């Protein structure tokens, strides 16, 4: 009988396969179980690695014999197999927790309800341009575990969702960034906002006085929670409305970043990322860059030439003078608020999908002011009709990206913007938000 420690990995996606690669490297007995089907790409990798795996089932006898389980962040705690693991006191960790045991690299960790991916990509861009040996992982890029197994980076920029943070215990962020907290994924948190808030604040766990915590001074939920807690890390707030001694703020059309290292200033018009929400993202990334001693000239260059991520307020095309914008990554109400707030024309808004307990009331004023028609893209659009039926005269339903684009095109005139900003998850009609965004872009090109 083998004396090897047995690791079972639930979920055979990017993080699961990456975890398998790292676990094999460190001599574990590995088994992967996926309740869904495993994509051909990952199947091929698992066969090459000679890792036993199963799909479309969970064999309890094997899973419940694990010493430790690495769980994909997409699997909720209420899944029957997870409940059984908890009953048996079998430790369940995330891929990030597992990978961090074998890495001595510095970590810059980014969470928040909105702006995570943009801030993560911008931070990575800044560090790469400065010549640092840096990896990109978490919710973006390749699996953290795979990179720890195969590369030798000095730094990692990690985008962390609340689901990933939930199964992280010993992990520590050297630089923790919390962008904002607005209601999201409440279906995974028993519809209790405090549970979700607690999850986000796990990004600060285990930090010491040698570490940094960067947060938004203007974000109500964040500040409410900060008032209740004590932090070991050095605090670096950022704000659009208040001047701060240590952190970032705006003044006289300048972005100003102060750290103990030195001061950085840059004209707001020179930033590649424009708009209020993006200024917050730039501030957070900029503070982390200064804490890592990135030179001002290098930071200025990176701020000036950064290209935003796909599916986040992405310009697709102009057709007959109508602008089409793909914001498929906006899977919650707050993301949509930022998108609508940045619009300077009349908008035909494509919205809908799998509702995550959304409260649309915060959008009422912006919708009144900017939206001329709504196209609902989803299987169940009742909640959207209820929320905006008294505000917007024209609300129509579509059951495909192509139908939504055609309807929106006919409801628009020259000078308008068609904005796909769904406020919902995509799994009713699409594989994921990328698939939704791609189908939207393909349909626009067909016009």
Automatic annotation (TrEMBL):
EC number of the protein: 6.3.2.9
Annotated localization: Cytoplasm
UniProt pathway: Cell wall biogenesis; peptidoglycan biosynthesis
GO cellular component: cytoplasm
Mur ligase central domain ranges (all copies): 110-287
Record GO biological process: cell division; cell wall organization; peptidoglycan biosynthetic process; regulation of cell shape
Top-tier EC class: ligase
Residues annotated as domain Mur ligase C-terminal: 311-424
Catalytic activity annotation: UDP-N-acetyl-alpha-D-muramoyl-L-alanine + D-glutamate + ATP = UDP-N-acetyl-alpha-D-muramoyl-L-alanyl-D-glutamate + ADP + phosphate + H(+)
Pfam families, A to Z: Mur_ligase_C (PF02875), Mur_ligase_M (PF08245), MurD-like_N (PF21799)
Molecular function (Gene Ontology), one example: ATP binding
Main location: cytoplasm
Binding locations of ATP: 112-118
InterPro entries per record: Mur-like_cat_sf, Mur_ligase_C, Mur_ligase_C_dom_sf, Mur_ligase_cen, MurD
Coiled coil ranges: none
The entry's keywords: ATP-binding, Cell cycle, Cell division, Cell shape, Cell wall biogenesis/degradation, Cytoplasm, Ligase, Nucleotide-binding, Peptidoglycan synthesis
Reported function: Cell wall formation. Catalyzes the addition of glutamate to the nucleotide precursor UDP-N-acetylmuramoyl-L-alanine (UMA).
Entries under PANTHER family matching the protein: UDP-N-ACETYLMURAMOYLALANINE--D-GLUTAMATE LIGASE
Family assignment from sequence similarity: Belongs to the MurCDEF family.
Protein name: UDP-N-acetylmuramoylalanine--D-glutamate ligase
This protein's encoding gene: murD
């Amino acid at each position: 009988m083998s004396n090897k420690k047995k690791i079972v990995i639930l979920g055979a996606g990017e993080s699961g396969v990456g975890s398998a690669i790292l676990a094999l490297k460190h001599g574990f007995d590995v088994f992967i179980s996926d309740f869904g089907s495993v994509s051909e790409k990952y199947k091929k990798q698992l066969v090459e690695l000679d890792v036993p795996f199963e799909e479309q089932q969970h064999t309890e006898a094997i899973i419940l014999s694990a010493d430790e389980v690495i769980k994909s962040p997409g699997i909720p705690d209420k899944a029957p197999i997870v409940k059984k693991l908890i009953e048996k006191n079998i430790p369940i960790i995330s891929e990030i927790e597992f990978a961090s045991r074998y890495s001595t690299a510095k970590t810059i960790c980014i969470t928040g309800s909105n702006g995570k991916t943009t801030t993560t990509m911008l931070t990575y861009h800044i560090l790469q341009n400065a010549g640092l040996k840096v990896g990109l992982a978490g919710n973006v890029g390749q699996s953290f575990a795979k990179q720890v197994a195969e590369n030798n980076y000095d730094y990692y920029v990690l985008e962390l969702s609340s689901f990933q943070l939930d199964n992280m215990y010993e992990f520590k962020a050297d630089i923790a960034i919390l962008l904002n907290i607005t209601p999201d994924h409440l279906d995974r948190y028993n519809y209790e906002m405090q549970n979700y808030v607690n999850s986000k604040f796990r990004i600060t766990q285990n930090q010491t006085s040698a570490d940094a915590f960067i947060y938004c001074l203007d974000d109500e939920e964040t500040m409410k929670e900060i008032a209740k807690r004590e932090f070991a890390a050095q605090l670096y707030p950022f704000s659009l409305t208040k001047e701060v001694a240590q952190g970032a703020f705006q003044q006289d059309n300048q972005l100003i970043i102060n750290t103990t290292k030195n001061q950085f200033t840059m004209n707001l018009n020179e930033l590649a990322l424009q708009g209020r929400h993006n200024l917050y993202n730039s501030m957070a990334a900029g503070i982390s860059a200064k804490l890592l001693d990135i030179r001002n000239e290098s930071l200025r260059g990176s701020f000036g030439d950064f290209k935003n991520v796909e599916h986040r307020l992405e310009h697709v095309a102009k057709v007959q003078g109508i602008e089409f914008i793909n914001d498929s990554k906006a899977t919650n109400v707050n993301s949509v608020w930022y998108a609508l707030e940045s619009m300077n024309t009349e908008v035909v808004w494509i919205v809908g999908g799998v509702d995550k307990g959304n409260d649309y009331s915060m959008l009422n004023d912006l919708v009144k002011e900017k939206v001329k028609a709504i196209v609902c893209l989803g299987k169940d659009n009742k909640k959207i009709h209820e929320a905006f039926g008294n505000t917007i005269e024209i609300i129509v339903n579509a059951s495909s990206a192509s139908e939504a684009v055609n309807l929106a095109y006919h409801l628009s005139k020259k000078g308008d913007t068609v904005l796909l900003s769904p406020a919902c998850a995509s799994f009713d009609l699409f594989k994921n938000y990328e698939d939704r965004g791609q189908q939207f872009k393909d349909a626009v090109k067909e016009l």
